[in-house]
Each structure stands twice: as C-alpha cells, then as structure tokens.
Design brief:
This is DNA polymerase IV. Belongs to the DNA polymerase type-Y family. It catalyses: DNA(n) + a 2'-deoxyribonucleoside 5'-triphosphate = DNA(n+1) + diphosphate. The chain has 372 residues and is an alpha+beta fold. It contains 14 helices and twelve strands. The strands form three sheets. It has a five-stranded mixed β-sheet. Strands 9-12-10-11 form a four-stranded antiparallel β-sheet. Strands 3-2-4 form a three-stranded mixed β-sheet. β7 (154-159), α6 (162-169) and β8 (177-179) form a beta-alpha-beta unit.
C-alpha cells in the first residue's frame, strides 16, 4: 500500500493510548470453507445459504461478488444477477471447528482477543509475547499460520486503535494487509468514503450524502454541535472517528446481549395454526441455545419477515425473566397474536431473548479493561 501523508496537527491536546491492534478478517469465510472442502466449487461463484427460489444469502465467494452477490441478499436476486450461481447449504459446525482453530492461533500471540463473529476478531498485541518485534510482523505470522493450519486466507488491518484497524483490514482484501501508523491515521480516515465507516449504515450514509458529507474529510470539517443536531447520540462517535480517534480497549470477554433462533420456511404461511406450530419449533431451538449459554433475560423479541421481505419486530419485557421454555414460548405467542390474522404470507419467524442479566460469577471472571 502506498504511504499516506501525515495529517495536520490536531486542534486539541488529544493523545491516543499507545496500543498495537490487529483486526483479522477471514476472506469470504463460509464460502471459502465450502470451496476448500469441495474441489468442484473452486473458482466458481458460490452462495452459502438459501436456494435458487427462496431464502437469503449468508455468504458469497469472491467469484460471486463480481456479479454483485453479497450477504443478506435475497436468493432470487442473487440468482438473477449471477445465473451460474451455485447454492450450498450452510455447515455451521464445520465453520465453528475452523473458527476454533483460528482462535488457538490468536492465543499463541495474545490473551487479549475480542471475537466479533466466527470469522473476525480484534487482537491487542501491545505486549510482544513472542518477541516478534512489531505488530506488522505479528500480523504476517498469524496470517501465515492460519493458511498453514486451515488452507484459508485472512486479511489483516494493523493500527493503533480498533476503528482504524477494522477499516484497514478491508483495504487490501482478499489475502492482504494494511498497516496504518498513528501519524497517518487521520489522513487515512479522511481519504475514505463515510459509507465504509463501521456503524454508518445505508440510512445514515444517505443522510450524510444529502448533507454533502461524502468522505472522512467532509465529516471532520463538521463541528460537534452540527453533528449533534443531525445525528443525535451518534455525534461523539462520528466526531472522534473522523479524527482517527477510538479509545475502546480490546475486551477479551464480551457480554452476551441476546440469544435466539429464526427459521425461513419453504413456502409462505398465512394460516394461524401453521404459524403457531412453526413458532413452537423456533422457540424450542432458541431455548436450547439459551440453556447452552446459561443466560436469563427479561425481553422477548419476535421477528417476522413477510413474502415481500418487509421485516418487523415486536418485543415484550417482563419483571421476571422467563425461566422455562413454556413461558418463553408463550411470550412469543402473545406477540404473534398481535399480528394475526394476516393475509400477507410470512416467510420467516425469529424469537430472541435479550436484556441478559449477567451473573456475579461471570462479572468476576472478566478481565479489567486496559487503562485509557
């Protein structure tokens, strides 16, 4: 990657914490595992999840991405954009096994590992455990170890904070690395379109475009008061991000915020009894996960996706957390009743428990955050 010019001095006395952060992001993880395990899929456009007629793409190979196929896209749209697209069912157990192998590699270099999903994580390598000499070389070694152990490629972003490390990991994908030192952070952020900022979704990006904010430099030119007027509680985050600031430490234990399950149906459902039967299966799968995580919570959320992909949620909180599968299921039934009867076909139901209450034992097991 070409060198980035050093930014002008910041207008205040802000000093970033001295950290060396690596963001590792596996390349097209689910699809790459499928291509690795099935040679007939290699070099071909592959979509994991869904089918040619129904469902949603969970992941797409880079060969499929050339045609605009991407995760969360309706399968029918993906098939229309890429007629030769090959759909394969997901094998989450296989992905979890590979993910665990990757985590074991991370643990060789640091204890400060913050997984974001099966295929990506932050690592704080400020302490050079293996006497490698630099975060850049550490990232190179980790990527090489991942390929050696799994046969899969990973991209890495290396920087002084989480925000920029995550942006950097996407800079030279696939199978690439990008290093942004502290003196180049603000200039790097200024050069990027705001739609690439983590936390800036399509709605916010569209609003920014209407305001003439297209790049990090445009965002940095706005005052905190201006951002507060237009973006409310997100203003401070945007203000700091535009200046390359992020004080968040890498947390090796992340609190479980919600646990649940969802199911996409082969055919759209409108019949009440059929919907209730389907909800029973979803509630059972969700409760199995809740028990596996050993959590309790007070908010039950029902997710409903209609045949036109319009999705709505309904939530209900109680003073006492559901403690048996029946009470959890009954809360879901009560929420679904508010939407019935319906003439619109329902293609997906989901049920989630949130408002998770952390046990004292879990709280005590957490490592203290790094000093800011």
């Amino acid at each position: 990657m070409a060198d980035i010019a050093a930014p002008a001095p910041l207008p205040d006395s802000y000093t970033a914490p001295v950290r060396k952060i690596i963001h590792i992001d596996m390349d097209a993880f689910f699809a790459s595992v499928e291509q690795r395990d099935n040679p007939e899929l290699r070099g071909k456009p592959v979509a994991v999840g869904g089918s040619r007629a129904r469902g949603v793409v969970a992941a797409a190979s880079y060969e499929a991405r050339v045609f605009g196929v991407k995760s969360a896209m309706p399968s029918v749209t993906a098939a229309r954009q890429c007629p030769n697209l090959i759909f394969v069912p997901p094998r989450f157990e296989a992905y979890r096994i590979v993910s665990q192998q990757i985590r074991e590699i991370f643990a060789e270099y640091t204890d400060l590992i913050e997984p974001l999903s099966l295929d990506e994580a932050y690592l704080d390598v400020s302490e050079d455990r293996r006497c490698v000499g630099s975060a850049r070389v550490t990232a190179q070694q980790i990527r090489a170890r991942i390929f050696e152990m799994t046969g899969l490629t990973a991209s890495a972003g290396v920087s002084y904070n989480k925000f920029i490390a995550k942006l950097a990991s996407d800079q030279n994908k696939p199978d690439g690395m990008c290093v942004i030192p502290p003196q180049s952070g603000a200039a790097f952020v200024a050069s990027l379109p705001v739609r690439r900022f983590h936390g800036v979704g399509p709605v916010t990006a569209a609003k920014m475009e209407r305001l003439g904010i297209l790049t990090g430099a445009d965002l940095c030119a706005q005052s905190l008061e201006y951002l507060q007027a237009h973006f409310g509680s997100s203003a401070s985050y945007l203000f700091n991000a535009a200046r390359g600031r992020d004080d968040r430490p890498v947390r090796s234990h992340r609190a479980t915020k919600s646990v649940g399950a969802e199911r996409t149906f082969e055919t759209d459902i409108t019949d009440r009894d059929a919907l209730m039967a389907a909800l029973d299966h979803v509630a059972e799968a969700a409760w199995t996960r809740i028990e596996r995580h050993g959590v309790c919570g007070r908010t039950v959320t029902l997710k409903v996706r209609f045949s036109d992909f319009h999705t709505i949620t309904r939530a209900r909180s109680t003073l006492v957390a559901p403690d048996i599968p029946t009470s959890f299921r009954d809360a879901g039934v009560a929420l679904l009743e508010t939407m019935l009867p319906t003439t619109r076909g329902i293609r997906l139901l989901g049920l989630t428990l949130s408002g998770i209450e952390q046990s004292e034992a879990e709280a005590e097991s957490r490592q203290p955050a790094l000093p800011l």
